[in-house]
Amino acid sequence: MINFDKDELYPLLFEPLYKEVMWGGTQLAAKLNRPIPKDGPAIGEAWEICDREGFSSLVANGPLAGTSLHELVSSYGKEFVGHKFSGGLFPLLVKLIDAGKRLSLQVHPNEEACAKIGGGAEPKTEMWYIIAAERGAKIIAGLSGKSTRRQFVENLNSADIEKLLQVFDSYPGDAYFINAGRVHAIGAGNLLLEIQQNSDTTYRISDWGRTDSNGKPRQLHIEQAMESIDFMDRTVPRITGASDTTDHNRKYPLINRCPFFRVDDLKLVEDWYDSTDSTSSFHLLTAINHPIKVGRDDRITEVPVGSTCLIPASFGSYNIIVGQGVTSTVVRTTL
User: Fold this and answer.
1) Bridge pairing between strands 175-178 and 238-239
2) Is the dihedral of CA 113, 224, 203, 172 positive or negative?
3) DSSP secondary structure, 86-130, as one string
4) Closest CA to 129 of 173, 167, 97
């Protein structure tokens, strides 16, 4: 157990874990100034806040530096996570996705599908917030209104599969709700924030005919995917972004009816006053376009662009301090 008074907890930053993937891009370095060598392996994911078996994020700032997220959750419980916490791991996983190439067409299971599939499958619902998008970048999310299960199955290995999917032009500030069972793929040129249930279960439906460095195709999971896809779902998952300029502070709800997380888009031209007491939950604050400062009194944390700060549930009132003469976009996530 940690010997640190809960009343002294403060807004926390964590050391990211970078993942090498065949589809990785360059925007983590170019847009967010992350220390990723240009001549190194392709990096496509930064796990910003994670509490998984085998890896738990380490605190990067203040007197708790080097402490794992799992140690914090185990030591403080509801005081750290919030009143909904019933033990176990931190409930969410926060990532940055840097897509230099298109990701596979995939789906995540819900609880019912996991029960049928077995093998340690975990349910996974997630959302994306577009931080940056190169010209021509696309998002694939959901089945089109005209597609049928039969057509989908018959076209799995055909380029015509895209005609059965909802395809969107990608714009910074847009968000997408990817509930379990919704077919999806992130297109090349996207840099996005991903908020998700704490799960690492993904079923690939198609990898667009690609092969790895050894000339072998990546494994697909057709049987599990067919068990997971909600073929009745034709909902448009895109949440169009609000204007990034405003004369006063505004809060735009992005995800407010999901049982796993709630997400708001804050457009701030002056300091924002908030409290974890209002939600009885931790707050995650992601600085999208400008650095911010978060906290109160002598417990203030500077949050660089692209980074996510975790405010423990017991922290109470705090300020988001923004720069003068700019509109700062902050994504706020709670349970």
Assistant:
1) antiparallel
2) negative
3) -SSS-SEEEEEEEESSPPPEEE---HHHHHHH-TT-----EEEEE
4) 173
- Residues making up the chain, counted from first to last: 335
Q: Nearest-5° angle of CA 184, CA 227, CA 223? A: 90
AA letter at 199: S
Q: Which amino acid is at 265?
A: D
From the candidates 204, 238, 262, 332, give the one annotated as an active-site residue: 204
Q: pLDDT 10s per residue in the chain (335 long)?
A: 788 999 999 999 999 999 999 999 999 999 999 999 888 899 999 999 999 998 999 999 999 999 999 999 999 999 999 999 999 999 999 999 999 999 999 999 999 999 999 999 999 999 999 999 999 999 999 999 989 999 999 998 888 899 999 999 999 999 999 999 999 999 999 999 999 999 999 999 999 888 777 778 889 999 999 999 999 999 999 999 987 677 899 999 999 999 999 999 999 999 999 999 999 999 999 999 999 999 999 999 999 999 999 999 999 999 999 999 999 999 999 99
pTM exceeds 0.90, yes or no: yes
CA-to-CA distance for 43 and 27, rounded, in angstroms?
10
The answer to whether 175 and 130 are in contact (CB under 8 A) is yes
Residue 332 appears among annotated catalytic residues: no
- Best CA proximity match to 293, nearest among 9, 8, 10, 7: 10
CA atoms lying within 13 Å on the CB side of residue 226: 10
Residues 6 or more apart whose CB falls under 8 angstroms from that of 5 comprise: none
End-to-end CA distance of the chain: 25
Phi then psi dihedrals of residue 6, to 5 deg: -60, -30
User: What are the structure tokens assigned to 133, written together?
Assistant: 């998008």
CA–CA distance from 226 to each of 62, 108, 156, 163, 209 (Å)?
47, 10, 11, 19, 19
Q: Give the pair of three-digit tokens for residue 273.
A: 């006053």
CB 214 within 8 A of CB 204: no
